[in-house]
Specification:
359 residues; alpha+beta; six-stranded mixed sheet; globular
Length: 359
């Protein structure tokens, strides 16, 4: 919870308990949201597709139709439960508006004293019969159209999420489609958004589903900037058009959005092939270096998603968490292919730091 007077942001991560149904997870989410009088502005649901659909229906029953974008990803639970978990960002005491595109809810906006935020989700192509690169292109065009509906442009985008069905079969063409779109929009002349790109089917059968975080400054006290990785090269140097991290800063809050990060060495090559423990150690060292560069650490994380190619590797990450004393981390474990065949693990996270009061 980040509170400023009567206003607040609620960062909620709810994992399935042993034997719990999707409806049970939703009941717990709904209880907290009602108690806090909070409105959801962004949501991700990870699990098998029937569990995701059941969760969406339960949210609509529990919370008056739940008219906000829900990005549902077939990221299977790494345990026996059908639903891996839910990430929610909700706000209290701040104006919220809903953004619709082609008759469908795709976003919500909220504002604080320094900026207006537009959170987009479940943005996807219309025609799944088109080639996958064509669907990727259409998805970016729909993101752009949704931004216009919310009074913004691609220049406002700080972060994207891309979940590609069967990623390993077309990640190269996807990257080319993204790069071409960014070139046409002049994205390389300003901030290139942070991003996550992993495998994930969706209930609509399209080649991908996406989300984005866009920001419009309301005064000069707000800043947005790329944050480089001290342990890795810039991703565009090997053909992936995203920043390693992006920071949104106000006089009272620093918000760091760290891209999906895997076991990649400074030159851009994958390392520690076949050794998941070594991949986890290197990946988390890379993430820590990004956090420390902005005076943050793992305990400042407000949302974490850990992607495993093989669910059997979760105990290796659990052992790492135990060594770090991060037993209460807001993390969801989900099964997903990473963008390269040899990569076994990827993590993304958001982190928050309140400004220290003046002495």
């Amino acid at each position: 919870m980040v509170e400023q007077g009567e206003e607040a942001e609620l960062h909620l991560t709810v994992r399935s308990r042993p034997g719990e149904s999707p409806a049970g997870v939703v009941r717990r989410c709904a209880q907290v949201l009602r108690e806090q009088r909070a409105l959801v502005v962004r949501q991700e649901i990870f699990g098998n597709l029937p569990a995701c659909r059941a969760a969406v229906q339960a949210f609509r029953r529990q919370l008056d139709g739940a008219d906000w974008p829900m990005t549902c990803i077939q990221g299977a639970s790494c345990g026996p439960e059908p639903l891996a978990g839910v990430h929610i960002l909700a706000v209290r005491g701040r104006p919220v508006q809903t953004v619709r595109l082609e008759g469908r809810t795709v976003g919500r906006t909220f504002r604080d004293h320094w900026a207006r935020h537009l959170l987009l989700g479940d943005v996807r192509p219309h025609d799944r019969a088109h080639s996958r690169p064509s669907q990727a292109r259409e998805t970016y065009e729909k993101l752009e159209a949704a931004l216009r509906q919310g009074g913004m442009t691609m220049a406002n985008v700080a972060r994207t999420w891309l979940f590609l069905d069967n990623i390993l079969s077309w990640y190269g063409p996807f990257n080319q489609a993204r790069t071409t779109f960014y070139q046409e929009r002049g994205m390389f002349d300003r901030l290139v958004p942070a991003s996550t790109g992993v495998s994930g089917a969706n209930a609509h059968g399209t080649a991908l589903v996406s989300g984005a975080w866009a920001v419009e400054a309301l005064n000069g006290a707000f800043s947005i900037s790329e944050v480089a990785s001290p342990r890795q090269c810039p991703a565009p140097s090997y053909g992936s058009s995203f920043s390693r991290a992006v920071e949104l800063r106000t006089p009272v809050l620093s918000r760091l959005l760290v891209s999906g990060t895997a076991s990649i060495e400074p030159g851009g090559a994958s390392v520690c092939g076949g050794d998941v423990e070594a991949q986890i150690d290197l990946t988390m060292d890379v993430v820590r270096a990004i956090l420390v560069s902005r005076e943050l650490d793992f305990r400042d994380a407000s949302r974490v998603t850990a992607y495993f190619k093989n669910p059997k590797d979760v105990p290796c990450f659990e052992a790492w968490r135990k060594l770090q004393g991060l037993g209460d981390w807001p993390v969801i474990y989900t099964q997903a292919d990473i963008c390269r065949e040899e990569l076994l693990f990827e993590v993304e996270l958001d982190a928050l730091r309140l400004a220290k009061p003046a002495p």
